[in-house]
Predict the structure.
Amino acid sequence: MAVIEEIWRHPVKSMAGESVESSLAGADGLTGDRRWALVDGAPNRAGKPLTIRQHERLMTYRARLAGEGVEVVTPSGGVRALDDRLVGELAAESGRPLHLRDRPGANFDDSPVLIVNLASVRGLAAEVGQQIDHRRFRANLYVDGLGPEQELEWLGRCIRAGGAELEVVLRCERCVVITRDPDSMATSPELLRHLAETHETCMGVYCRVSRPGRLAVGDLVEL
C-alpha cells in the first residue's frame, strides 16, 4: 500500500508545474494538466508541441492555473499571463514560430496520469551515488510506502487513488529531460545512461482514469 506524498500538474507542456494539495482526476488527467502547449511551426516539426528537448529554457518558466487561464512565472521572477505577447517572446527566444494550443487531453506523451514511486527514485540515487531531485521525472503523483520498483506490480491492473480509480497501462520510457536539474539546469548525463543500462530506460508508470474522482496528498493508493 502506498500514500500520495505530492501532487503536481503542469498546465503548459514542458514548463515547470505547480504542487497542489488535491485535484480532480478525470478522463483528461488532473485538472488543467498539460492543457496548453506551445506548438512548433518549424518545417521539420510543424504541428508538434515544443518541448524541453527543442528549447531547454522552457523548464525555467513555471506555469500555474489562475482562474480559467494560466499565469507564468518567468526566469526573472516576473508573473505574466499566458497570452500572445508571451508566446511571441518565447518564439523569439527559441528561434521557432510558435502558437498556443488549448486542448485538454491532447498534449500528453502517452496516458494522462504519471505515477513515480519515490522508493524507486531513492534506489536509483543509491545506484548512481548521488542525490536525485524527484521533480526531474515530472510526474503527477509521487507515492511512497512501496519498495523500489514495486509499482511495476501494478502494470495491467487497476489501483484506487483517493476517490479515483486508475488503470496502470505501461512503464514510462525516459529521455534526455531527466538529465537536467529542475532548478539549476545542470546536466547529469549519467542518469539516463544508467537508467538505460539497468532499468530499460524507464521510471514511473502511466495510467488511464477508469473512474473519475478527487485525490489528495495523504490518500492511500492500493490495488
The chain has two domains: 2-30+109-222, 36-102. The first helix runs from residue 84 to 94. The helical segments are 84-94, 118-128, 189-198.
